[in-house]
Amino acid sequence: MKLDREMEMLLDEIPLLHHGDLLGCGETAAGVADGADADFDFSYLIQELGEMGFVDDEDEDEDENGDFSSFLYPRKASSSPTSNLHFMDAENFVASRPFSTDRRREMSLFDPFPFSSTCFDAAATEDWDFQAAPAVRSRPCKTSRPRKATSPKKAGAAAKPSKYESLVGLRGYMYHVAKDQHGCRFLQQRLDDGKREVDFIFNGVARHAVDLMVNPFGNYLMQKLLAVCHEEQRMGIVLTLTKEPLVLVRISLNVHGTRAVQKLIESLRTKEEIQLVVAALRPGFLELIKDPNGNHVVQKCLQSFGADDNKPIFDAAAIYCLDIGMQCHGCCVLQRCIARSTSEHKERLVAAIARNGFELAQDAYGNYVVQYVIELKVAAANASLAQQFEGKYVQLSMQKFSSNVVEKCLKVFKDADKANIILELLAAPHFERLLQHPYANYVVYAALQNSKGALHSALTNAMRPHVELLRTSPYCKRIYSRALLKK
Question: Domains in the chain, ordered, with CATH?
Fold first, then answer.
């Protein structure tokens, strides 16, 4: 009986398979250790291999299938005692190719391998060494504190490239991209690339201008788009914003929209654009002026447009000056209206404020508007204020806000009007109360500073009987410090 090359390969594998009981021989190496007979009868093994078609014998037929299916799927081991083969001493019968102990790992029957005679022939010819790839050695676990894991957000940002790489892929999604923080930034950068990119982005977002201008991120894109688009495109945005009533007012009242509307106002160039924007804002002027966001839009109109274009604002300010002037934001807008108006618009506005001077002078914010008007030294306005204040200077001097107005009157009014104020103070039933009053003492001090001659002497003479009071009272120290009183 002669062994062919396939037999050699099989026998080479036998020493490696003694732990796996691959052929189903029953006992393992443990059986040998327990005292089992180690002398094997290999005739049964040879018979089994012959039945599987691995014995080259003239009297033996090949396997019916002519392949190695019997080798891959061996029969179940017989229960006969003679079938219990132990491979612990398999090296005693390996004759042709001794087992190489220096190999990392020999080829196993469980490894995928194309079992063909051609392959085996080539292996024998070229003296292949069937070895699997060396196993990767696992790194031993360190006892030190484990490294801090990278947050999923940072890991994703580092591994994932930016999803915004070109404008072409954003067609139809420009509106949604503009509302994203990174998308908005990407689109703003593309606006710097030239007219083609500006036109492409404009076509994608212009019809959504209303929503984008109040968006936390989209408003920045709209601001930059308004700065780089041409006149026709800007007019298209203006028409979109002014198409429906009060839409532009609502945007201006928004914390994000107010910035975009201010940029829109700065970018307007033609008369038609300005008229459309002013007309759209006009129904909400009163609300805008008094709003913490909207008042900046009105002030931007006053700063960017001419007096004729701002006429609707001046008219609204004159009509509602009392309401506007007594509000924290409105008093600032009212002063800005006076500063930007000219000729008849200014005269009308100043006259309207002067007519309401007495109410405004006593208000926490309105008193600043009255002081601003007094400093303009408009004769008609100051005369109107002096007439309203006459006989009430003592009352006004003892109030926190209106006392500032009386001080301003003593500094700006004509001498005749100043004299009327001082005489009214001197005629007070209890003049000493004015000296030690927390607000009126400032008025008396201003009277000392802005009087001269007989009027000034009358003031000092009225104070001398109260010198001891002036020395001790905390509110009279400023008055007593005057050099004239020390004499």
Answer: 2-126 (no CATH), 166-301 (1.25.10.10), 306-389 (no CATH)
